[in-house]
Design goal:
- With 419 residues, this protein is mostly helical.
- The chain has two domains: 350 residues, Alpha/alpha barrel (Glycosyltransferase); 34 residues, no CATH class.
- The protein has 17 helices and six strands.
- The strands form three sheets. The protein has a two-stranded antiparallel sheet. Strands 3-4 form a two-stranded antiparallel sheet. Strands 5-6 form a two-stranded antiparallel ribbon.
- Strand 5 and strand 6 form a beta hairpin.
- It is globular, with a radius of gyration of 21 Å.
């Protein structure tokens, strides 16, 4: 059925300005409930020093060192990632503390820094992420702590990447934990190693356009250019690079408003959390650069809300069947908060999305199913892939909520759709 026909209802249609989410789906109905969830989640992860499994840690064990061929690496990594039984103890894969998780959490806490408790948390995590900034050849950037093999690239733990750099840099900039020299090193490293003259690249060796990474680089470059601590020539280079990179990804938007993951024959899929990254970073870059991106944003949001949700439950792939993933679910909450702030969706939609996804995250005591268990629990215990993104989403949602009178707290319960 063509998009936009009268019976093709998007979540925005269901939960528009004059509509209520049916039964509110048992969701929290005031800001303090969301803040309580954020506090509970933070304490759960902090008690574990932000260490745990990661969906891409399969190559960190002894077998990973033996997997010298691309196919072997990908098979091992995907087997560990997708197994419903946690294979990590058997394979000698130990919990990881990643700078990316810590940096993301630092930025999440910084939103609440008016509170002394949250300010201390933000500064502590920001300093920790800043301490992981690379020196030497790739000075100023950040990396993953594990080798990664994807369908389009391989990059070892020794090599920085743009996603880790962006999340860590934003967390450090939000908390003010980078000194002027560290900021200059970051700016130089970003241009020297992660920009190819046309767009920002995922890794220094990559020549593949990945839209979410490109726009992360553009937004970070634009932010750095406005810090006021850089030489004028360096700031101008950052600004020019950001402008060009934004134009590249604007040209890559499809007629239906979506963005493929990347440019290339095997990169044409559309998924929820990468689309969320694209929209957030496009708006950030456009605002910082003074570029009017309102129309592409509106088209992108319309596609996102219509094709990447089944009611309040996020879809992993556009128009695909529901597939639960902690990063995708957390990003959906983050995007719902953003959509509420920007007037793209009503507040009830954000509540409904949160209630639909919150059941599986450990530490929140919201899983009411027998035994509180589900397949591949390790994936949901990942600090980088699960806890930190949800903390970021919860603090963003808290700041977006109206400050209503505070009745007694309402417990968060999973919906039927989330079971």
């Amino acid at each position: 059925m063509p998009t936009g026909t009268p019976t093709d209802h998007s979540p925005r249609d269901r939960f528009g300005p004059d509509r209520r989410a049916p039964g509110r789906l048992g969701s929290p109905n005031e800001a303090t409930d969301v803040l309580a969830l954020a506090d509970r989640l933070f304490q759960w992860a902090d008690a574990r020093d932000w260490a745990g499994p990661d969906p891409y840690d399969g190559l960190t064990g002894p077998l990973g060192r033996l997997a010298v061929h691309r196919v072997l690496r990908q098979v091992l990594l995907q087997t560990v990632k997708r197994s419903r039984i946690d294979l990590r103890p058997v394979l000698g894969i130990h919990p990881l503390r990643t700078a990316t998780a810590v940096g993301t959490a630092a930025g999440a806490c910084a939103r609440l820094s008016a509170s002394p408790v949250w300010r201390e948390r933000a500064l502590r995590l920001g300093r920790s992420a800043a301490a992981e900034q690379l020196s030497g050849r790739h000075a100023g950037l950040w990396r993953y702590e594990f080798d990664v093999q994807t369908r389009w690239a391989y990059y070892p733990a020794s090599v920085p990447n743009l996603v880790a750099t962006t999340f860590c840099a934003d967390g450090c900039l939000d908390t003010g934990t980078l000194d002027d020299e560290a900021v200059r090193s970051l700016a130089r490293g970003l241009l020297e190693h992660l920009y190819n003259g046309e767009f920002f690249t995922y890794t220094p060796a990559s020549d593949v356009l990945v839209h979410n990474a490109n726009l992360m680089g553009a937004a970070l470059a634009a932010r750095l250019a406005r810090t006021g601590t850089l030489p004028a020539a360096l700031a101008n280079r950052l600004t020019d690079a950001a402008h060009g990179a934004v134009e590249v990804s604007l040209d890559g938007q499809r007629p239906d408003g979506s963005w493929p993951y990347g440019r290339g024959p095997r990169l044409g899929w559309v998924d929820g959390f990468h689309t969320g990254y694209v929209l957030l970073r496009l708006e950030q870059a456009g605002t910082l650069l003074g570029v009017d991106v309102r129309r592409p944003l509106e088209r992108g949001v319309a596609h996102y809300l219509r094709h990447l949700f089944d009611g309040p439950l996020p879809r992993y792939f556009a128009d695909g069947r529901s597939r639960r993933d902690p990063n995708n679910d957390a990003t959906a909450v983050r995007m719902a908060a953003w959509a509420v702030e920007r007037g793209f969706a009503a507040t009830d939609f954000a509540y409904a999305v949160l209630a639909a996804v919150v059941d599986r995250y450990p530490g929140l005591n919201t899983d009411t199913r027998a035994g509180g268990s589900h397949g591949n629990r390790a994936l949901w215990e990942s600090p980088r892939w699960s806890t930190a993104p949800l903390l970021d989403a919860l603090t963003a949602l808290h700041t977006a909520l109206p400050r209503w009178p505070q009745p007694a707290a309402v417990a968060v319960q999973p919906t039927a759709a989330a079971s």
